[in-house]
Amino acid sequence: MKKIFASGGVLLFMFSFPLLALSIDTHSTAPLTKSGQSQMAAQPVTQAKPAPLSINPAALCMNNAKPMELTVEKSSKVDNKTYFATIRAALDYADSHKACGVSLSIDNGEYPEPLNINRATSLIAKKTAVSHKSPTISGSIHNLKGYRLFLENINIMNAQDVGLEQNGGELQMSNVQVAHTKARPDFAMSGMGVRLTGGVRASVGSLKLWDNGSTALFVSDAGTKMKVFDLTLWDNKAHPFAVAQTIKNKGGAVLQGLAAVDVVNGALLLVEDYSIKNCEFAGLVVRKGGRVHLKTGAVENTKAVGKAGSERYGGSNLMVVELGRMELKNFSTRKAEGAGLLAWGGYMKAATGEVRGNGIGFSGHQPPAKTYDIVKCVTGNDIRYYENSSNLDTEYQALPCMPGDALCIGVAACPGVAWE
Fold it and tell me: What pTM, to 2 d.p., does this model score?
């Protein structure tokens, strides 16, 4: 157990470092003749009837042309072939007509209806919509079969368990807000803002996540890749159940539901222009082989969790654990109750930034490879450490890689995460 002392109390960091389908039968029988033999009487020829043409609708939809275009108007009195009073009614109409894809132009207003996506779908605010009154879906959007999904100028508010959930497939978002997702008290996977798994390929411009009851952005699984330009994430909570488990275990491994952004199990997150602040336990954690590259932004004021007057846990702005990897450029990490930067059994590489006003500037322990200089990789001349209660907390001493040491072969001194 490693205790870290910082202003305002004792912080404990402990990590035990996861085309058409055609089916036709053409069998036939015909008379047999042999050379030199007299011609035999003609025999009847039988040929099986071709089987019915079998068409796979999904195969047709892969190369489908224009999607079905529908309009959702709050003022609509009767649903018809073009206008619908609710989003669900429009999606049901597309379903009843077996549309390969559907594009909805949605009027301003609140739509209290959880949605299940079962075809390529676009949800787009009408061009007459005022930005601060964008259509608001009060419920979850579930896309569990990986259909292509596009959201533009849409709010997702007050959902139960998860705001937007997608497993596999393609996701595009532009100017989307997800807020006030509600968590069940005994289920740490609930309360999530956006949850991406199973190899999702996501491209996002302007995403705002705030006041969600658990992890605001969860990115998981090998093949899952999310690229975000302009990410704002404020006032996010750690899940109460995960917090209780952490207190009970007196630290331990980072649990799901603790960090505002959690990148795990080989997933890749690329972010340019970001603000993450006023969250609990961790602003962003990358773990279990996850990878993150952050360009130009700030993480600040992450709070530790725990009972008043007792040991408190977490409170770090940026964390890498359990063989996670993170690369930072043009960054700022400020006012963390715990550490501005923390690497415990993971890789961190930083350039051009500031580490200011944290309990600890950088806390580094248990480097996963001997040639990874845990200190050198985050303390270059272009990184300023100042106004921290303590700039550096580590017992690590860099050791040279000895000839023949298998653990050293092919390991970079400061492994980073390529911008793809």
Answer: 0.83
Contact 281, 296 (CB under 8 A): no
Per-residue pLDDT of the chain (420 residues; tens, 9 = 90+): 333 433 333 344 443 333 323 333 333 333 333 344 444 344 454 455 554 544 444 445 655 558 999 999 887 666 777 889 999 999 999 999 999 999 999 999 999 999 999 999 999 999 765 555 789 999 999 999 999 999 999 999 999 999 999 999 999 999 999 999 999 998 988 999 999 999 999 999 999 999 999 999 999 999 999 999 999 999 999 999 999 999 999 888 899 999 999 999 999 999 999 999 999 999 999 999 999 999 999 999 999 998 766 789 999 999 999 999 999 999 999 999 999 999 999 999 999 999 999 999 999 999 888 778 888 899 888 999 999 999 999 876 655 555 566 655 555 578 899 999
Helix, strand, coil % (nearest 5) of the chain?
A: 5, 45, 50
Q: Which of 93, 248, 114, 94 is nearest to 182 (CA)?
A: 114
Which stretches of 42-183 are assigned E, i.e. beta strand? Answer: 46-47, 68-72, 83-84, 101-106, 110-111, 115-116, 120-125, 136-137, 141-143, 149-157, 162-167, 170-179
Q: Yes or no: say if 375 and 381 are a contact pair by the CB < 8 Å rule.
A: no
Cα gap 275→145, rounded to integer Å: 31
In 3-state terms, what secondary structure has residue 202? strand
DSSP state for residue 131 in the 8-state scheme? G
Asked if 190 and 213 touch (Cβ cutoff 8 Å), the reply is yes
Amino acid at 131: S
What residue type is 84 in one-letter code? F
- How far is residue 362's CA from residue 375's CA, in Å, rounded to a whole number? 8
Query: Which amino acid makes up residue 320?
Result: V
Hey, where are the domains in the chain? 2-14+108-120+128-393
Q: Identify which of 334, 339, 217 has the alpha carbon closest to the alpha carbon of residue 269.
A: 217
Q: Please say whether the dihedral angle defined by the alpha carbons of residues 134, 135, 137 and 138, taken in this order, is positive or negative.
A: positive
- Strands 268-277 and 360-365 turn out to be unpaired
List the one residue out of 366, 382, 306, 294 whose CA is nearest residue 337. 306
Query: What tokens were used for 233?
Result: 């994430």
Q: Are 93 and 80 in contact (CB under 8 A)?
A: no
Q: Residue 308 corresponds to which amino acid?
A: A
C-alpha angle 353-357-360 in degrees, rounded to nearest 5: 90
C-alpha closest to that of 108 among 145, 139, 144, 153: 153
The structure tokens listed for 160 are: 């139960």
